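Appendix B.2, paired examples.
Example (i):
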Amino acid sequence: MDGLQEASRQFRRPENLAFLPAMTLAAFWVGGEKMLILTALGLPLLFLIAGAFRFVPQRAAASPTPTKRSGLIERLDATLKAQNRTGLTTACIVLHLDALADVVERHGHAAHGEVLQRTAERLRSALRDGDVVVQLDGDSFAVALQSVRRADLESVLQLGARLQSAIASPISLDAARVYVTASAGFCLAARAPAATGTALLEAAEIAADDARQNGPGAIRAFSPEMQRLRADRSALRDDLEQALELGQITPHFQPQVSTETGEITGFEALARWAHPKRGLIPPMEFLPLIETAGLSERLGEVILFHALTALTAWDAAGLRVPHVAVNFSHDQLRNPRLAETLKWELDRFELTPERLCVEILETVVAETDNDVIVHNIAALARLGCGIDFDDFGTGHASIANIRRFAVRRIKIDRSFVTHVDTDPAQQRMVAAILSMAERLGLETLAEGVETAGEHTMLAQLGCGFIQGFGLGRPMPFDDTLGWMQTYRGRLTALPRIGRHVV
C-alpha cells in the first residue's frame, strides 16, 4: 500500500513530467515500437489521472510594488510602525520635473508622456530593489526608500542628487533631444511632522515645492519653517484672484532718467500688492504664486491698464513722461493675439505705441524657440513699441537674438552696477557691455543704482539712462506727481557730469 501511495505522489508531481521523453525512449529500447506507443500514450494518461496537470495558483508576492500614492503611503506606514521593533527607518524623496509645459508646447502630449515614462525607468534603474517609485499627480515622482538601519541628511542628499543626475541625461524624441531637470525635496522619517506615511510624503512634497521656488534643479530638505511658509503661500494663493479683481494689486512706478540731461525719460510699472491685513507684500512672495496659479495674463492686463491710465493722467497734468515700461511675462508673450490686443488698448487710451516700452526678460529670449513668442515680439516692435531686454547679462542671450527681436535698449542687471564706482572689475564689465551696445546702436539703462557714486560712474562710462533707489523708489501713482515736481525743481542745480573711458 505504501508503495502505491508513493507512486501516486510521484505521478502527482508536475516536475516529473520532465522525465517523460526519457522514459518513452527507454521503453523503445527495451520493447521496441509497440512498447514505445504504449508508453507514449499511457504515461501521460497516468499523470493526468494522478493530477499532475492540475492548475496551481501562484502565491501573491509578499510585498507588491505600489503604483499609486496610497500604496506608497502604506509602504511608508509599515516601516514607521515597525520602527521601534526593528530599529529600521526610511525617508521619502519627491522630484518635480521642471518646465515640462515647454515639452508639450514644442513636441505635443505624446512626447510629454514619453518623457514621464523614460524618467520613471531611469529612477528605478538608479535605485535599489527595495526602493519604490510612484508617479504623483502632475509631473512629480515620489520615492520611498527601503527600510535601512540609518538614513541621515548626507546620504539622502547624495541619493537625491544622483536621481537628479539620472533624470538630466538627454531624452531622444524622434529627431529632437529633450533636456529635463528636476527640483527635489526630501524628508527623513525622524524629521517628519508625524510618524505616518502621509505626513512623511507631504513633508517631502513641501520640500520639493520649496526647491521649485529656488530652482530649476534645486534640492531641499524638509524643515518645519517650510510648512509654515507653505501655509502662508496657500492662503495668499486663495486671495490672489480676488485681490486682482478688487484692485489690491496695482503698479508702483519707479522713475528712469537720462544721465546726459537729468530729464525724466519714463517710469517702470512694477506690481505691488496692498493686502488688507498683511500690508504691502513684497513681489518676490506673490509673483511666483501668480505664475503657478495661472494668473500671469490677468496680472499683465491689470498692470497695463493702470500704466496707460497713468500716462494719460500725467499728460492731463502737463507733466511730460515720454513712456511707461511694462514687464511682459512668458504667458503673455505666448498669446497669439497679443499685438492685436495691445494696439486696441493703445487706441482706446489715444496713445501712440512709442509711449509704451515692452520689457522682456533676457532669459525668455535666450531660451525660447517658440514661434508665437518670436512672432509677438517682432509684431510689437513693428507696431512701434520700444523693446527692452531686462536683466541683461544674466540670461546668455546672443547678439543674434538682440538683432532678431529689434531690441531698442538693454537694461544692465544690478549685479553689474553694485559698487561700480569703487570696483575696477565692475567698471571693466560695464564698459564692455556699453561698448557692445554702442557698436550695435542700442540704448542702455542701468538698474539698481543706489548711490550718487554709482550714478556718477555710470554717466562717465557712457550709460544713457539709470533707475534705482538712489534716484527714486517705486511709488504709488499719486506720489509720482509730487515727486516729479520736486525733482524738476532740483534739476537746475545738478552739475553736468563728464565722461571718461576705462
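Example (ii):
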Amino acid sequence: MLKPNEIVVDNFAGAGGASTGMEMGLQRKVDIAINHDPDAIEMHKLNHPETTHYCESVWDVDPIMACAGRPVGLAWFSPDCKHFS
C-alpha cells in the first residue's frame, strides 16, 4: 500500500493500459507518465488527463526534477516497445 505522500510513475507509458491497471488496483491516479513517442503521450493524456506527462526518453528525464522531492512508492517500467514488441 502506498503512503499518502508517495507518487506513482509509469515509464514507457504508451496509451496507458498499465496506468489504468495501476489506478484500478491502487484506487488513485498515476502521477507521472514518460514515453518518447508524441502520439503515445497524446493518447495517454486523453486517457489520464490528471497525470503529468514527459514526452522524452526515460533516460533523459531527470528523476529528481520530475518527482520534485516527492518519494516514489511505485515505479512501473514496461518493456521498451521498439526493442521488444
